[in-house]
Structure formats: C-alpha cells, structure tokens
Amino acid sequence: MSCNPSFGGIGKGHLMREVDALDGLCSRICDQSGVHYKVLNRRKGPAVWGLRAQIDRKLYKQNMQKEILNTPLLTVQEGAVEDLILAEPEPEHTGKYRVSGVVLVNGSTVYAESVVLTTGTFLRGMIVIGLEMHPAGRLGDQPSIGLAQTLEKLGFVVGRLKTGTPPRIAKESINFSILNKQTPDNPSIPFSFINETVWIKPEDQLPCYLTHTNPQVDEIVLENLHLNCHIKETTKGPRYCPSIESKVLRFPNRLHQVWLEPEGMDSDLIYPQGLSVTLPAELQEKMITCIRGLEKAKMIQPGYGVQYDYLDPRQITPSLETHLVQRLFFAGQINGTTGYEEAAAQGVIAGINASLRVRHKPPFVISRTEGYIGVLIDDLTTLGTNEPYRMFTSRAEFRLSLRPDNADSRLTFRGYKEAGCVSQQRYERATWMKSSLEEGISVLKSIEFPSSKWKNLIPEASISIGKSLPLRALDVLKYEEVDIELLSKAVPEPLRKYTKCRELAERLKIEATYESVLFHQQQEIKEVQRDEALQLPKDLDYLTLRDVSLSHEVREKLHFSRPQTIGAASRIPGVTPAAIINLLRFVKTTQQRQAAMDRLPKTDQHLCNTDKLEDRQL
Amino acid sequence: MWRGLWTLVARAARGPRSPRPCTRQGSGAPAPGSGATVFALSSGQGRCGIAVIRTSGPASGQALRSLTAPRDLPPARKACLRLLSDPRSGEPLDRALVLWFPGPQSFTGEDCAEFHVHGGPAVVSGVLQALGSVPGLRPAEAGEFTRRAFAHGKLSLTEVEGLADLIHAETEAQRRQALRQLDGELSHLCRGWAETLTKALAHVEAYIDFGEDDNLEEGILDRADSEVRELEVALGAHLRDARRGQRLRSGAHVVVAGPPNAGKSSLVNLLSRKPVSIVSPEPGTTRDVLETPVDLAGFPALLSDTAGLREGVGPVEQEGVRRAQKRLEQADLILAVLDASDLASPSSCNFLDTAVIPAGAGSPNGRSQRLLLVLNKSDLLPAGGPDPSADLPPYLLLSCLTGEGLDGLLEALRKELAALCGDPSTGPPLLTRARHQHHLQGCLDALGHYKQAKDLALAAEALRVARGHLTRITGGGGTEEILDIIFQDFCVGK
Description:
The complex is a heterodimer.
Chain A: E1 6-8, H1 12-21, H2 26-33, E2 34-40, E3 50-55, H3 57-69, E4 81-87, E5 97-104, E6 109-111, E7 115-117, E8 126-129, E9 132-135, H4 146-154, E10 158-165, E11 168-170, E12 180-182, E13 208-212, H5 215-223, H6 229-232, H7 244-250, E14 257-262, E15 269-273, H8 281-288, E16 299-301, E17 304-311, E18 325-326, E19 328-330, H9 340-358, H10 372-383, H11 407-419, H12 424-446, E20 448-449, H13 451-457, E21 471-472, H14 473-477, H15 484-490, H16 492-495, H17 502-532, H18 552-561, H19 566-571, H20 577-598, H21 605-617
Chain B: H1 2-13, E1 37-41, E2 50-56, H2 60-68, E3 80-85, E4 92-101, E5 112-118, H3 121-132, E6 137-139, H4 144-151, H5 157-160, H6 163-182, H7 185-210, H8 220-240, H9 242-245, H10 247-250, E7 252-257, H11 264-272, E8 290-296, E9 299-305, H12 315-330, E10 333-339, H13 346-360, E11 370-376, E12 396-397, H14 406-421, H15 429-452, H16 456-474, H17 479-489
Parallel strand pairs in B: 1-6, 7-9, 7-10, 10-11, 11-12
Antiparallel strand pairs in B: 1-2, 2-5, 3-4, 4-5, 8-9
C-alpha cells in the first residue's frame, strides 16, 4: 500500500467483493488488517453500497507477506526487472513475439512460461515537488527505465499519466478535540464472503476526523502556481479532482473536505485525505497550518506528484494478454487505471489467465454483464483511457444486477470450474448460499395473503389495502420497513429458519427489493451476452481483409483494438452498424465453412488443416 | 438505436437453428421476454389506393384482435374484411382487409399480421398510432423485418448480402428523416428534454458515486426531483397536445384570407367542390369563420373561409374580422387571396403590408407560418398579366370563374402540405412520428417510476430508462456524457 491507507469505497468495494469471489487476496487480508470499517452509501440502496475500511499499512504488509510466503508451490524472488526475454511466437496464436522470462537488474535471468507486468507508477516514474523533479517510482525507490524502453522498442503505444499523494502529518500535533469525529460501523461488515466478522471489535477501532480547507489555503495555492510544475504540465490528470490545486483552480471559493485518516494501530502518522499537493515542501507546511485543527501540525513527509508511463490498454485482450507479445500480461496502473482495487481486479484476472495460458486452457474472461471487473476490462480494452481510470458505479449499465452482495453467485462458480482458482471451502459456502437463496425466494413467492391480512399481521408496514390482488410474502418484503425478521414473526412457519443467518436474511431482502426490475434487466443482459458469444477470429487482419466491405477508418479502429467479439466491436466508437453486419456475415460464413469441415471424416484431418491454412492466407 | 439494432443483427447470426421466439396462434398477451413485436408501413410510400401495414412478433395476434375487436382472429392466411378501430377510443379507422400469418409460416418466421388499408395518410397514420398503443408493440427499426426474417432462417445468406447496404440506406433515411422532423420545434423540445434529463441523472449519479465522502452541495437530489417533475409536466402536455402530433390525421389548418370581395369564398367552394360559402358580389358577405374538412391534393385539411379583412362597417362584421385574424394566427397555411384586377386599391395594399409580407419574412414569434399568395380573377386581367408596378411576392394566378390556374394551385398546395404533414413520398414520416410518440410515452412512464422509487439505485435506473427513450430520438446517451457533467459540475474525487 504505497498511497492511501484505505481499501474499498463506492464502486471500488464492488471490485473487492468480486476479487474475493475469485479467491483473490486483498479482501481477506483487509478483514485481518483494518482499523476502521465503514460501509458508504448505506441509505442509497444495496446495489450501490460501498464497502470501505481504513487499513493498517504495517499489518496489511505483514499479513499479505505471510499469506504469499505460505502459498504452496510459490517461489518469491525480489529484484527489479530490466528487460524481457523474447522467443519465436507460437504459430497457432497471434502476436509477433513470445515472452519466455525476464532479466533482472543484476543481470540474472528468470525463465517463465508467462509473465505478468504490474509496474505501478514505476515505468519512467518521475516525482515532482514544487519545481523539482527527480526520477523515482515512489519516494525512495528507483524508477524502471530499461523495461519502459524495451516495451517502447517492441512497438507498444505509450502514454503518460500523473497522480499524487498528500503530505503526512504527526498524529500528536493535531488538535482532534475541535474536529468532527467519525466512528466506524457497528457491527463491521467484512469484505470477504468467507468471513462472518473482521479481526477487530468496533469499539477497538480507530476514529477518523473531518476538517475543511479555507480561503487561506486557496490563497497559498493560487499565489504559488509559478512554483508548481506538476499542475502546469500537459500530462493528463483525471477530470475528477485528486489534488488540492485542481480543486482550488476549478472550484474556487469553496471549502473542501479533508479527512484525517489513521495510518495504523500504532502509527503516529495521519493521512490527510483530500490534500494531495505538489507545492514546495515549506509551502505545504504553511498551507497545512492554516487548516482548522492542524494549526500546530508537524509535517513528517511532504506530498508529491508522480508522472509515469502507461501503455494504451487497447493493446491487450480481455484476458489481459498483450496482442503484441504472447504470454505477456499487463495489470494495474500500466493499463492506465488508478487505485488498489482496480489493480487487484486486473491482477486476479491476469494471474488466472497467465496460468490458463500455460496449461493451454481457454482464457477466463468476465463479461460486463457479469461484474464490475468485466466493465473495467471491457472499457479499457475497447475504449482505452486518457486519464487514470477509476471505477464508478455509474459505469455499470447493469448496476442493479452487479451488486456487492451477490458477487459470489456471479463469479465463484465460474472461478471454481473454469479457472480452478477458488478453494473448496469457498465453493461450498457459495453453493450453500445460492441454494438457500433460491429456496428462500421460492418460499417467499409461495406465501400469499390478501393485503388486508398482511396489514393485520405487520401493522408497521405501509401496505395499502385497496388492492384486491393477493400479495406474496416477497412483495411484502419489498417494503422499506419490512425485513425477514419482521416477516418471520408474522409467518413463523416456514420463514423462521431464514433469520438464522444474518447474511442470508439480508440478501433475501435485497433480492426482494430489486426483483421486478431485475426481470427486465435479465432480458437485456441476455441480449448482450448473445452478442458477446459471437467470436471474431483472433487472427483477422483487418487492414488487408478482403471479402468484407469496411471503411478505412473502421479497419484502423478494429485493427488497433482487436475486439474479440461482435459485442466488443459494437462498443468501439466509430464502428458503424453496417460494418457490424458485414463482420457478422463474415463470421457466419467462416463458421459455416468450419462446420462443413468438422463434418468431414477424421481420416481427412490433414486436408482440413490445409484448408485452414488457406483460410488464413486469405 | 445502436444497441437494439445490432442485437437483432447478432440474433440473425445464430441462424435457423436458434429457438424461435414466437407463439402459435397468439394466446393473448405476449409471453414476456420472447422479443418485442414491431410494426411498420410496408407498402410503397405516398398516396396510393391501398397501403399495407405489417406487424411481426409474438403480440401480432393480440394487435390484430385489438384493432378488429370484437371479432376474433381470421383463419390463417385468408383475407378477411374487418372494421378497424382504435382500441383506446373505439373510434373507427377504416374498413380493411386483414391477414393473419401464424409463425413459422410467415415472411419473418414470427407471428405476423397485415392490414391492407385505404392509402390516405390520415388512415395510415391512424392505424399506426393505434398499433403503437397496443402493449408490447413498438415501431420497427430500420431493416428490422428483414433481419428478423434472417434470424429465423427465412432468408438465405446471399439474400442478406445486401442487408448491410439496406440498413445503411435505411438508417441514413431515418437519420435524414429524423433530422428533417427534428429540424423544428420538436427537435428543440427533445434536445432540451434530453439535456435536462441527462443533467438530472448526472446529479443523481453524482450523489450515488460521490455523495458520502465529497462535498456535493446540499439539495442536489431535490433539484433533480424538481427537474424531473417539470419534465414530466412538459412531456405530458406535449403528448396530450393532439394538434402537433396529429396534424396529419385531423388535417392541416388552411385559412383563406384576404380583403373583402377578393373571391375567398369562391376559392373555398372551388377547392371543396361544394357550395360551402354564400358567394355574392357584395363585399362583406362572409362574416363568420366557415370551416369545412377537405382533401387537398391528397392531404386532409380543414379549410376555413374568413371574413374579408377591413375596418368593419358594423359590429357583426367587426367581430367577423376579429375572428378571421385570430384564425389567421392559428393557421398552418394561409391562402392569401387578392383581386388581380384591383391590386392598387387601399384594401389590397393594406392586406399585402399587414398579412402577406410579414408572413413571408417569418413571424416574430418563431412559428413557421406558410403562405401562398393567390391572385384571383385572372380572367379580368389584360393580356400582359397583373400590374407590374405592384411590388409583389411570388404569386399564383387563378380564375375561380374559369378554373384556369387551379392545377398550378393544387400542385403548390401539395408541396406546402407535404412540408407541413411530412411528405409520404420521401420517407417514413408517419413511422417517425409513431416512434417519437412511443419513446416519449416510454420516457414519461419511466419518470413515473422514478418518483415512486424509494431506493436511490432504483430511482437512478428509472432515469436511465427514461433517458434511453429520449436518446433514441435525439442520439447520444453514453455514460461518458454523464461523467462529463459530474466532473464539470462538482468537485469530486480523491
């Protein structure tokens, strides 16, 4: 954790639940390392709840290392990667090269069947404080220059992004007594599906505090813009406002929130979230002391900006393998994303696919109809990005279906069967939950009474008795003030058993809330999935492809993004409906030819192969 | 349009072995999830003896039954004469031949119905609107019938070769059509609504994605609520306004106006082929507004004869002039009539200055008002035509007495009315209009769900659906648009 001492948030919490559903580590480690657990958006509907926690940096590192080092069959070697070892490509796959290992900075080599690059902000990383710039991936760490050059030489399109981090403040120098205190949730909601609770009791957790900027802060920022080259640089920062400078410049004369977050249980540092800044260090300190509660604050480490290379993510497939180099996978900030959660989401997918690729298994791809991970990767690989891509719930068109509560039903079974990345224990838990939910819903549907009877049974509910049709228990459960507990008091048999498991009771309530809308959304999802089932041949050369009438512009776009399905192709801006139909006809003809060949007797196999060769030459 | 359009295309690719989403011998309400039922005018456009309107999809049987109620479905593939009426109002529309083709033995492979109606624009428009009101039916997208036929294996691959071109051409035509139609008041309205809605949605989305840990201003949800309420009122008013949407059905308002004794009533009688107005050589004969529905060059029109415009001599005639002026303001098309032999008279000059010239210059309130200047009594003119000294806008010469110039006038009327009502020979305007109405209604319904939703994610979903409907008329509608507004309006992020 090299920046903020927290995990999750709105949209990001969804990603963490999905990573966990695939047995990724960060959620489980966060359940062992948090110091302040709080679900955001509690009042806005369970589809947009944002699980979030302040995490103890030291504990997280310890727990994560313990987990990794105790993973059977895993060898861990530390060292900066300087170059890739390349070999001839496999003829049955696209790509100009194949990676077969890496060269470390000390000259030693590590051979590998697949390689995942997760370079963070290190590719030609440059740290900026005031007018000073110096090469570094992170304060105190060398950047990665050789690797960046290798990637550029191979022909990857490289772009540049920037991000930043706030100064760190000594805890004992802050006057918390005059600030607003935020206490954690009670009870804490764990990130992981396999944990019923987190490692620490709510009363033992640490609070956060809220303070605000003021006109003096604006003044310091505005008067010293000439000392701030990070802000002037043309490198694209995000449209949202990560730094105090961009907040002041774009929304002047306002008070901006600053959250004072603990860095850990026994850490004496405070992370002032919202105060990311690249002013010269002495001005940062001056600015901090203008803020309420921070009048006597001691700055331990200044904030700084980081500029770094990323590779246009349209150069990777939805399995995160590069088009250019076989068995080379990219994950995280190298693909233009922000944050731990986006990185974790890509990490789990890249890891799964790096391993499947070695075992000659088909890639594991999550559709945008199945998860935020799918939305993230589809957006990146079809649209690219020119600002650090951050997950928002508004990016997911099927938001009501892709909820934090049901990530296990969406992904765990696929992870278990297709990727083999899910533990038996998790699989069994998810299976039990799924069948209990299905049974619960059908029981709730089967209980039907006239609305007047329901009104008598549950006077708390605002059921209107004007309706003549009988109401199902599932319909009653939709009312805001009704939960399984209340319902089971009215109809103890057979509902009482569903109150036993808190998670099950809560999930039944959520399913009831969205039931009517989900029916329609399922139809739409099916349509999109049908489109995604139509694969485009991976080795299509769009630039020279004859037999398909496509404009030059469309060819270029398809050539660069290399969509794998008709669905992905249709989401590329500028690819017209007519072009899609033409592609479709092409796919259909190819399929028919393929089917005809498959019907040939097996002894003629070699003939089929020559046919295929000719096909490709086309 | 994009996604729906090509989802169908994708379905097409699954080929004939895919499960067929159609029910046999329509069982009433469409089975949910078995695909929408679409309708369109399938015969050639323009005024013709018979127009064919087709539906395809599981609700076809339901549609046929609701328009021919109380009769039941006709036997399959047999032409039957039925009285068509609007299922909402019961208002009779036409006597027509109807055919019922239960799938899979139909053009598209789905349940299909055909209505062979009398080819006037009013009838066609009426039947299309009636179909649009049947649950489960929506206007077809470009090339949709062909694509459905392909999907059900009714067309071979070679027959589909031309499909891309066809869709390209049709979407082009639809786009042009939409542009044409959107090039006026409706365009303005729709874009405005879509903007308001996108903004309201962006604010709700901002509240969801950034509401907790960033300082959004207070009350952004209340603002979204009030925007949605205003939008609801505006949409409701628009949909209730029969005049705008149904000009073609009820007819364009054509008002005959001019100074006294120019021959306005003679023209009305000539055009309606019946003595509607009393004609006399005495100025001021017509005192009230006389209305008569007529068929003008193939278009239905409501023709109004008005009192001659002059400083009235008596209170009755003065009231007549006032009513004439009011009617003029509401007219879709003005037929300005002058006495060709009397252009220099004060009443002629006054009429030219106050009514004809301003209309030609475009009215100040921005309403398009079309005007045709007719110089009547051409039989009284000398061989050289009207007085060249009079500075006249373009005009048509006519003699109501001899009928000379009538053909020219009818041709000019046809052009004007085509522009007003949508020219059936240049595209599918009726369909476009039905589409608009369909999506505006869909938008309004979704806004209703927004208001009822307690859960904010559900409320946002309703707004997303509403916006989806509007953007199918105006285009656009991506997520990026929303994020742009969020980042522009709010200081959010960390």
